[in-house]
């Protein structure tokens, strides 16, 4: 009898899951993982023979398994139950190796890139978890800073006498780990960023973001669960920028203060560490009292702009950081009620989003261009719109990779030809609205 | 395809069972099982299926010829040709690149390096057909008359990818006709679930620690971390391999076959010799019956025979010198144990067990590091390292503490401590029998959960 029950139960489990499989609708993307889920490749003689069809079936089944998200959440409970977790324990998280981890892969063109912020991705592979906060291990290299400065110098030379070039690069959060033994990362970050200063020429202006943040190292300037700085860190960077640009920063107490709770960001998604989960971020952010309108352009031209927001207050949960500018976009134009005739272009990666929103107090027009997704020509944009300031505001990740520096350099010669399809996430509904056709390999 | 995949568990297995049990017709069942086995084999690398089918057809006819000319010189010639062809295929596909590299180091070769990838399961099915052919030659077996049945024996998906090395003498009668009942089917399910649990919950978790400690900067390891890393590799290797064997044995039962045990609590061994009577038993038996005994066994040049068998065992595991060194290492200790047999018998049980475990765990380093430079550096760290303990080592220990306890419990040979005629064993068996449906579902659920979780692959930035 028991044998019958055992057999029937087991078979029912297999068949039951199989039935769910057949009758549950399939998702196209996983928002938590920020990636497209696997698709079945077409069965042909060739795809069968080279094994790619079989692999696509394996990947498809893995990615579309019934109750996948529930199983993943439960697995977290299992991993947490394997032993004892002490609150103050240090841990090192080594991430999965991905195809993009190939360090020596030559940086060629946009067309070959699935994603080129490889420094950032690589850093996500080695993370220190301390007191429920996640930090990258390291602090960049002065050698790479000189490549970044050389790119800025080229722009400064081309724009000499017309547009100022300013550098506002953010340190990694590792610079401010609250433990003496990690002080070395503070020095490493500092040396990396000061190397930009010492290599700048042609009148390019260095904004000492590191020093300004270091003065406030006892405040929480970076998220514990996400790889970005928070609005306070970005504010101090803005103060440093104002000092470099000759502006008077607006006191954040004179802005509207807002708060968002329970933010578990990208580094939690990556590590799934219980101590990080137990330490969700609260995001305090400041909205300048400036009236703005904003539009978003596609990657290649100025056709059919869509409405954008400087602040997307509705963003919450895992998408809390999308509050700033509604997330990454190829090009956003912000028009403000500050009628001083000043115009700026901000070249940025996602770190620049939280920074750029403070600039609305100082410019009448701001073009926020994400160098990873845009095919616009930067020099034409500057010339056509009489831009006063060209501001490079990005996380150190972007200034430490040949790939990303190359992308910023190529903005000078872009001609609006589509090369890469950027993601478009509707910040209000958190739904992905754009079909894609990239061939991301899931490892 | 591997057993520990969602594709296998929830797609392949239900379909294979459905078609196998669709009718009681024996021919249909064998056709269905052969078709599913070939599909299983062809899943990863369809190209290599031709090689396996060629081997099956070739050996099928050769066995018939040997049987026809048994007792005649012709049978011996056919036997030699057959063994030679099978070994040549194995050597060409598995050791071609290795031989080329070594020979080209001596002098320039007139041809390019072979670019073959290793056909899945070739090490296993080559030994299966060799044992079959030799047994037919020796008159211990009647050659299989039905080519379909022979192809099914070679290609059975249950043993194809990672063994055990199943002999025709074990399952020959079941190839022709199998009796299946609920008890056997249920036993198969239980064994499959245990194997799946061992693979997913133990081996894969150990594997993550191995990657962390042995892959990422092993040069920077402290001595304790180096031992921890290599111990975790020992855990991974055992639970991975024995888990796979358990799944194979369980699946075989579900389809009406009885495979022999391949592992018997190897980490409870009292000597190196004892260890290899408990570890990958089917391989040990193959070398014993087809190499060691024919060379003279313990009657003639025993020490030489031991060393040859161990060098072959080492090289069977992979085409690299480290595997030969690994074989030499074990061969040497087997010989030392033979020479010190009387002394070792007097050593307390606990010390014998400790000595064996240390030797085995150390041997895993030779197994793991294919590169001799890396091996040297790692072994150096095993004995002396000025590196301090790295960030997170302590938390890794604490965060796996319950899992470590489970691993130790699962390595203990409970059935040897409490044999089947003891009260404890009988009581435990009774409770297990009653609770096994729940245990199996729990293990399946846990394994599914972790398999699904392994597909979790988040990115920092959206990549739609």
Topology diagram in text:
The complex is a heterodimer of chains A (443) and B (464).
Chain A: H1 2-23, E1 29-30, E2 35-36, H2 45-49, H3 52-63, H4 68-80, E3 90-94, H5 118-123, E4 126-130, E5 133-136, H6 142-158, E6 164-170, H7 183-199, E7 205-206, H8 209-215, H9 231-245, E8 256-263, H10 266-271, H11 274-277, E9 281-287, E10 292-297, E11 306-308, E12 331-336, E13 343-348, H12 351-356, E14 365-370, H13 378-384, E15 389-395, H14 396-399, H15 402-410, E16 425-426, E17 431-432
Parallel strand pairs in A: 6-7, 6-15, 13-14, 13-15
Antiparallel strand pairs in A: 1-2, 3-4, 4-5, 8-9, 10-11, 10-12, 12-14, 16-17
Helix pairs in contact in A: 6-7, 6-15, 8-9
Chain B: H1 6-20, H2 26-42, H3 49-68, H4 73-106, H5 122-137, H6 147-155, H7 157-160, H8 168-176, H9 182-215, H10 223-254, H11 272-278, H12 281-295, H13 302-317, H14 321-339, H15 341-346, H16 349-368, H17 372-383, H18 393-399, H19 401-411, H20 414-417, H21 423-454
Helix pairs in contact in B: 1-2, 2-6, 3-4, 3-5, 3-6, 4-5, 6-8, 9-10, 9-21, 10-16, 10-17, 12-13, 13-14, 14-16
């Amino acid at each position: 009898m028991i044998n019958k029950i055992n057999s029937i139960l087991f078979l029912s489990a297999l068949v039951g899951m199989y039935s769910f499989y057949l009758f549950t609708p399939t998702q196209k993307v996983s928002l938590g993982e920020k990636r497209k889920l696997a698709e079945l490749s077409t069965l042909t003689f060739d795809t069968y023979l080279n094994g790619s069809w079989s692999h696509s079936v394996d990947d498809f089944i893995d990615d579309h398994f019934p109750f996948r998200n529930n199983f993943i959440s439960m697995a977290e409970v299992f991993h947490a139950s394997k032993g004892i977790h002490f609150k103050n324990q240090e841990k090192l998280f080594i991430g999965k190796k991905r195809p993009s981890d190939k360090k020596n892969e030559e940086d060629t063109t946009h067309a070959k890139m699935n994603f080129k912020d490889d420094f950032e991705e690589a850093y996500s592979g080695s993370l220190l978890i301390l007191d429920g906060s996640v930090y990258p291990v390291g602090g960049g290299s002065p050698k790479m800073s000189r490549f970044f400065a050389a790119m800025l110098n080229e722009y400064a030379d081309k724009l000499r006498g017309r547009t100022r070039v300013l550098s506002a690069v953010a340190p990694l959060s590792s610079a401010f780990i609250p433990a003496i033994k990690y002080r070395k990362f503070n020095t490493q970050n500092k040396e990396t960023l000061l190397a930009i200063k010492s290599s700048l020429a042609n009148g390019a202006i260095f904004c000492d973001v590191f020093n300004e943040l270091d003065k406030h190292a006892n405040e929480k300037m970076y998220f514990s669960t996400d790889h970005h700085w928070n609005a306070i860190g970005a504010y101090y960077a803005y103060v440093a920028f104002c000092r470099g640009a000759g502006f008077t920063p607006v006191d954040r107490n004179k802005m509207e203060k807002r708060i968002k709770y329970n933010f578990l960001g990208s580094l939690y998604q990556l590590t799934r560490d219980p101590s990080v989960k137990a330490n969700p971020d609260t995001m305090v952010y400041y909205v300048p009292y400036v009236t703005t309108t904003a539009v978003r352009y596609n990657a290649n031209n100025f056709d059919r702009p869509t409405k954008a927001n400087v602040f997307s207050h509705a963003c919450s949960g895992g998408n809390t950081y999308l509050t700033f500018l509604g997330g990454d976009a190829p090009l956003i134009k912000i028009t403000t009620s500050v009628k001083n005739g000043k115009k700026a272009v901000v070249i940025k990666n996602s770190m620049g989003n939280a920074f750029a929103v403070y600039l609305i107090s100082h410019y009448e027009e701001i073009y926020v261009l994400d160098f990873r997704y845009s095919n616009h020509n930067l020099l034409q944009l500057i010339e056509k719109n009489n831009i006063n300031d060209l501001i490079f505001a990005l996380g150190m990740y972007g200034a430490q990779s040949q790939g990303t520096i190359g992308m910023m350099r190529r903005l000078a010669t872009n001609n609006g030809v589509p090369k890469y399809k950027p993601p478009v996430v509707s910040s209000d509904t958190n739904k992905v609205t754009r079909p894609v056709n990239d061939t991301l390999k899931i490892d | 395809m591997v057993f520990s995949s969602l594709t296998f568990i929830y797609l392949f297995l239900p379909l294979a069972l459905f078609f196998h049990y669709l009718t009681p017709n024996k021919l249909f069942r064998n056709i269905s099982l052969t078709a599913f086995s070939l599909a299983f084999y062809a899943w990863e690398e369809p190209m290599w299926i031709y090689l396996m089918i060629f081997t099956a057809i070739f050996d099928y006819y050769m066995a018939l010829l040997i049987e026809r000319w048994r007792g005649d010189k012709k049978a011996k010639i056919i036997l030699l040709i057959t063994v030679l062809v099978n070994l040549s295929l194995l050597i060409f596909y598995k050791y071609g690149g290795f031989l080329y590299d070594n020979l080209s180091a001596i002098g320039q070769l007139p041809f390019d390096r072979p670019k073959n990838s290793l056909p899945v399961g070739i090490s296993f099915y080559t030994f299966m057909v060799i044992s079959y052919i030799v047994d037919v030659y020796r008159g211990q077996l009647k050659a299989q008359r039905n080519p379909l049945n022979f192809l099914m024996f070679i290609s059975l998906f249950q043993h194809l990818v990672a063994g055990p090395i199943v002999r025709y003498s074990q399952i020959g009668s079941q190839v022709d006709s199998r009796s299946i009942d609920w008890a056997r089917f249920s036993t198969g399910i239980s064994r499959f679930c245990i194997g799946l649990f061992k693979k997913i919950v133990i081996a894969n978790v150990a594997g993550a620690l191995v990657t962390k400690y042995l892959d990422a900067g092993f040069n920077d390891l402290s001595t304790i971390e180096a031992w921890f890393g290599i111990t975790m590799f020992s855990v991974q290797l055992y639970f991975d391999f024995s888990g796979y064997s358990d799944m194979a044995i369980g699946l075989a039962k579900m389809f009406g076959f009885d495979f022999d045990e391949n592992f018997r609590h190897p980490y409870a061994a009292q000597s190196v010799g004892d260890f290899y009577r408990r570890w990958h038993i089917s391989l040990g038996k193959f070398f014993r019956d087809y190499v060691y005994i024919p060379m003279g066994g313990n009657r003639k040049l025993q020490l030489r025979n031991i060393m040859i068998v161990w060098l072959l065992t080492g090289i069977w595991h992979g085409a690299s010198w480290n595997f030969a060194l690994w074989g030499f290492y074990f061969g040497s200790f087997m010989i030392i144990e033979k020479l010190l047999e009387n002394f070792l018998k007097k050593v307390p049980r606990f010390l014998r067990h400790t000595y064996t475990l240390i030797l085995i765990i150390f041997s895993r380093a030779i197994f793991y590091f294919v590169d001799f430079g890396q091996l040297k550096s790692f072994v150096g760290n095993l004995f002396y390292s000025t590196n301090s303990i790295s960030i997170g080592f302590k938390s890794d220990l604490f965060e796996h503490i319950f899992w470590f306890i489970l691993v130790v419990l699962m390595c203990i040979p409970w059935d040897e401590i409490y044999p089947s005629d003891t009260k404890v064993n009988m009581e435990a068996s009774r409770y297990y029998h009653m609770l096994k449906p729940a245990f199996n579902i729990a293990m399946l659920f846990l394994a599914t959960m972790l398999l699904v979780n392994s597909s979790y692959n988040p990115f920092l930035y959206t990549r739609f």
